[in-house]
Structure formats: structure tokens, C-alpha cells
Write a structure and sequence with these properties.
152 residues; mainly alpha; elongated
């Protein structure tokens, strides 16, 4: 197999893998929001009403994370809704969304560390941060492979 054939095969595999990871990201964000809703009394007590470490809002970052995850997923699947999608921006917009999501999730985890260090909720945020990092890397790889293998 030639190097060009290998790159094309990698590109063909990276497209569905990145799409499935984006779907899993939205599902994870929804599940994390549900977990936060279930734990809301504890989170209100330890995060929202913490007099020792200062009060923080644990709800708004979850909404921001969901909007970023859903936006990236919508852009990835935009070529199915209208011809051509957003062109090369179909690759670039999700990379920006995942980068921002990684930034906000890191900040959210650090904020939680001040209040509920090493709790189950904090650990799920840490796992989510790793997952979004993998998703960001795969999106960048998908973009690079797309640029190398197509004339699009």
C-alpha cells in the first residue's frame, strides 16, 4: 500500500470516529448535567453557599459546556443538512468549540477543586477533560488528514 493510500484510509476512518466522539461528547455533557441535577443539594451546599472558600456558580458552566458540545456536533453534521456544509470551516469551527470546551471544563474542574476536591463529581469533570482533549486531538487530525488527502 502506498503512503497516499494509507492517508486516504486514515481520513476515511477519522471522519466517522470524530463524528461518533462528538456524539459521545454531547451525551457525556447531558449525563454530567443530570448528575449535577441529582447532586444539586450537595453542590448547592458545598459550592454555591461555601462561606469558607467563596461562593461559586456550578450551573452556568454546565450550560456553556453543553452549548459548545452541541454546536460542534451540529457543525460536523451540517453537510447532511445543506450542500457543502460550511466548507473548510466544518473542520475549523469544531476545533475551536472543543478548544473552548476544554478551557471551560478545566476552569470548572479547578473551581470544583476549591469546594469538592476529589469527590465523584470532581472526578467526572476530570474524566471529561481528558475525553475532550482526545476529541480535540482527533478533530485536529481529521482536519490535517482532510487537507492532505482532498481537493475540497
Amino acid at each position: 500500500m502506498s503512503n497516499a493510500g494509507l492517508l486516504i484510509d486514515l481520513y476515511n476512518l477519522s471522519n466517522p470516529i470524530t463524528g461518533y466522539l462528538a456524539i459521545a461528547n454531547v451525551i457525556f455533557t447531558i449525563a454530567y448535567g443530570i448528575y449535577g441535577f441529582v447532586m444539586r443539594k450537595s453542590l448547592d451546599k458545598w459550592v454555591s453557599n461555601d462561606n469558607e472558600n467563596g461562593e461559586d456558580n456550578w450551573k452556568v458552566p454546565l450550560l456553556i459546556l453543553f452549548v459548545l458540545a452541541a454546536s460542534a456536533l451540529a457543525v460536523y453534521f451540517s453537510p447532511y443538512w445543506f450542500q457543502g456544509g460550511f466548507g473548510w470551516s466544518t473542520f475549523i469551527i469544531p476545533i475551536g468549540c472543543f478548544g473552548a470546551e476544554l478551557y471551560f471544563l478545566n476552569d470548572y474542574r479547578k473551581m470544583l477543586a476549591n469546594h469538592v476536591w476529589k469527590s465523584g463529581y470532581w472526578r467526572v469533570a476530570l474524566i471529561g477533560e481528558y475525553f475532550v482533549g482526545i476529541l480535540l486531538f482527533s478533530s485536529i487530525a481529521y482536519y490535517v488528514l482532510g487537507r492532505v488527502t482532498t481537493n475540497y
